[in-house]
């Protein structure tokens, strides 16, 4: 149980384009989902917290208009990186929390912006 | 704000031996959760063990156990009978039980298993 998937696992895009990453909880309903960014050999940095049906709460320093988060259902959240630039290249990880107090993580998405 | 400190960037242990990874945290709260997550080369974050602060008993999951010292704000992870598959980055994380559900992570410890 408690499986979280992410799609795609890797994406390469051109500078200026937008990229959407999906995060799904496969066997539980996720009341809250979280989006993290991880730089090489670094820890996870929380970008935003999203609750189903409401606007995401962004961490300080994270641009809301650049990183659009939608949590339309209890099993799906999406992160859209708008007008991506090379500095947005990173590893993006989502996690989901259901009724328990534990966050379960997706396998991550490696984004490369050329 | 809460902070989590992992003072050992790298550790190594001989296969079948025991290793302890350190974690300290800073908080003014009394009710919270602590976690150890493992991130192998696949980069999938895997929950290893969790501890609820109001429970005095140390959590145990098979070969993994913690030494939770609430007064000292210390939460170390002991891995017994180390196996090659234990090689990974290990992150300690804190979560408040009030309002904000976000996890605060430490900087991680890279564990190498020596065959």
Name some characteristics of this structure.
heterodimer; A: 114 residues; mainly beta; four-stranded antiparallel sheet; 11 strands; globular; B: 115 residues; six-stranded mixed sheet; 12 strands; 53% strand
What can you see in these coordinates?
- The complex is a heterodimer of chains A (114) and B (115).
- Chain A is mostly beta strands.
- Chain A has no helices and eleven strands.
- Chain A is globular and about 40 Å long.
- Chain A starts with a strand and ends with a strand.
- The relative contact order of chain A is 0.34.
- The mean pLDDT of chain B is 94.
- In chain B, strands 2, 5, 6, 10, 11 and 12 form a six-stranded mixed β-sheet that branches. Chain B has a four-stranded antiparallel β-sheet with strand order 3-9-8-7, with no helix packed on it.
- Chain A binds chain B through residues 32, 34, 38, 42-44, 46, 49, 91, 93, 95, 97, 101-105, 107-108, and chain B through 33, 35, 37, 42-47, 50, 52, 91, 95, 97, 101-103, 105-108.
Number of beta strands of chain A: 11
Shape field of chain A: globular
Helix content of chain B: under 10%
Distance linking N and C termini of chain A: 37 Å
Give the uncertain stretches of chain B in residue-range form.
none
Order of helices and strands of chain A: EEEEEEEEEEE
Oligomer: heterodimer
Structural class of chain A: mainly beta
Helix content of chain A: under 10%
